[in-house]
Amino acid sequence: MTDHIIGRARELAIIREALDETRAGIGGCHVILGPPGIGKSRILRAAGDYADGRDIAVAAREAFRHDLAAPLVSLAGALLQCSPPTGEFAWLAGPAEADSGNHARIHRLRTSLERYAADNPLLIVLDDAQWLDELSALAVRELVPALASSPVRWLLAGRPGEDGTPGTETLNWLARFGSPITLGVFGETETKELCESVIGASVDKTVEALVPGCGGNPLLIEELLSALRDSGQLVVADGIATVTGEDLPGSFVSIINGRLERLSTDARWLLRATSVLGRPFDLEAAGRLTDRRPTGLFDLVDEVTEAGMLVEDQDGLTFRHDQVRLAVQSGLGAMKARQLHREAAAMAVESGRPTAEIAAHLLRSGPAGTREAVELLRDTAARVAPDSPADAAELMQLALDAMGRHDPERPEMVAATVRLLASAAKVARAQELGEAALRAGLDPPTRAYLHLGLAEACKHAGHNARAAEYAEDGLAGPAASPPTRARLHAIHAHATFYLDDFTTADRAGAAADAIGREHEPGAAVFGLTARSLVAQAQGRLGDSLDHASAATELADRAGGTARHRHPRIWLANALTSLDRFDEAQRELGAARREAERLGTRWAQPLLHYYLSALLTARGRLDDAAAEADAGVTVAEQETAHQLIVPLLGTLIRLAVLRRDLGQARAHIERVAGLIASGITAPPEDVEWPRAMLFVAEGSAPAAVSAAAPIYDTLRDRPTLIVQRPTAAGALVRMALAAGRRDRAAIVVDSAARLAVANPDSRAAAGSAAHAAGLLDQDPQRLAVAVTRFRAAGRSLALASALADLAVLTRRRDEHYEEAMELSAEFGAYSIRARLDAGFGAAAGSGIARTPILPLLTRVEREVALLVADGMTNTQVADRLWKSPHTVDTHLRKIFKKQDIRSRVELAKLVAEERARFPGDT
């Protein structure tokens, strides 16, 4: 670093090493946390200087409290000021395209960053990141992991304690994946060194006795010493500084006031007037607030900058620190402050500043301004809500704070705010605000609308029991409007489905459909998708398809919010259960393109989940694991906790199939934590993965015990067999191994019922034959299962049935050879282990692999070769017809397997393999 920064040697060394790695091609992120004045900004500036000296481009910006409702302004502002200048990010300066949702903008930004970083290492610095606008915060959460393989280094600094802001949540999210750099207060040694650096002399006991009152905060120490020096109370004699006098400043405000008193009257007014702005300003803005011509301010600006009160940066003039600005502002009288804020509001309107900034000034400009601000905040919240619900909720809460407690419009605004908080996954805040409003008393229609918001908040968080209760409370009276009733029924349907109350869920879904078709098509679509899930869970596969098809047709016809429900996701799920895989994949592809176009990011984890299920059925376990892993990442970014459990359940099952039991145990621990937090999930996503792990660990009795909820309800709820036809055989095998033939008989009976109820389903017929063949030790039934699974295109189920047939007949025939071949191709090593155990071979014996990058799967090898050829992850995704998230996951696994950290290292590895084995890659 170019400047010596006292007391931060360890922190600077960490950042220096990180930037050296970035220069070598390795990306990553560091979070710096600490209270105001602790030195975060100084470290960021030093990092920028260090990067610049090593030919690393720097894109830096400070986020501001008023960046709300200005989507992407924080991150775009940094990139547009990239040094050295580049045109790669120029498109960020223009307006967002009318048909471009948030997802599309983030995707385009990712592409720009990948393209730029391919030739230029880049440092992105975001100061005061707790104030990031919602879209910038979302982009950071997505882009940090997505660009980990590129030479892009992120450095974010923020203060703890600003709960609920998108920026704070992002800082906390990033901190969980690494060790944040937490800046502490100075001790005696650092404090003395700082004093001597500021004064330029040694200090005696009078100074050392005074500075502890600053609590070790560097900013307070520096300001105190400057104030004492300005007042003549700091005397240096013979190279030693001494404090004289008794009238010493006792607080930070008094320290700043003492420094102000040494300035001219006009200079003091310049500082007081501009202190209302809260962001960098130019001479024209300062002139309007002080009623002077800009050219007449030159001498005053020199005076305040020489005094260290203002500094000049690339955005204009700004206070040395925001705490200094607030201290200066505290000296304004109420009347002056109101007039200055009104003028600042007018200036903000003229220059197109964010709504939150305009409203903040209006709220401080008097009663008339408050009324104007409330209307402005409410109108802007309505406009930005579809793309930035968290920002909209913040704006509405500002409006609520400004309104009178008894304002007649307040209840309706509270209800709207609760729904926005629900959309933004701010469950705790939504419940706190909503419950307070319910206790205060509301008119019946508003009360029902508020219950809807609370139900949505709890449903999003996975608290299905609470969501069902709120929905029932909202439906209890006749006052709810038809659209509200339709939405309440739809939420109730999905919540009760996950509570295993299928009768209620189907009834509620039907009510949502009946009311919603006339009044709220989106609710009708959502209700129909719940009915599709119920039908599938009960084994009525034709009905499941009919409901999902009806939902899709209605969404296409109605458009608008109905299309945002993305029923094609559930249509694909129904098609998969009927073995119509190509159709399911087309529908999932269409749903993904639609979700990206509309910017409905909540749908992304669900798309990954159902695509993973489809790929598993086809035996493409590597792709399936990558999709599920990407789904977990997106669900965490979106705080969609409800979806994390089924995605982790998928990863557990896949880890067991691939004999990666350590990873399976780690995922099970995460699931247990989520369940303990109040999230509810069906046994197929919790108990069944646990049972699979117990089997793999050789404990069949524990597996049967864990799967008891599945055995007990299988006749009426054959969900597991519908979703995973291999499960029928697995349930029978574990029951027989545990000596529980009664449990095995339940599975055989249930699978037979499912096959009879769905005569067109080859998978159902295969499951029934597989289960019966294992129970009765009948090779002919197992041969029927092989035939049915082959006809259904169920490659994984086929491999499992082939293995069981080979083990039962004890012949190393074509069934054995095909089972071995398929298990090797899929990486389904648990099937190979079953064969080895059945024929007396050593379980887990090796599988022949190609010599090129031998630890990689086929798909990982494809990704590695394309990345080594210079493609970005986005380009690889386009070439392989995969999502960028899936490619990210494959690349992370490649790095882990090969113990490398950058694309440069990967390219070198591939080049070496190509040289050793020409033609093989």
Automatic annotation (TrEMBL):
* Coiled-coil blocks: none
Question: InterPro entries this protein is in?
Answer: AAA_16 (IPR041664), P-loop_NTPase (IPR027417), Sig_transdc_resp-reg_C-effctor (IPR016032), TPR-like_helical_dom_sf (IPR011990), Tscrpt_reg_LuxR_C (IPR000792), WH-like_DNA-bd_sf (IPR036388)
Per its UniProt record, what SMART domains does this chain match? HTH_LUXR
HTH luxR-type domain: which residues?
849-914
Q: A Pfam family name for this chain?
A: AAA_16
Please indicate if the UniProt record lists ATP-binding as a keyword: yes
Q: What are the entry keywords?
A: ATP-binding, Nucleotide-binding
Listed name of the protein: Helix-turn-helix transcriptional regulator
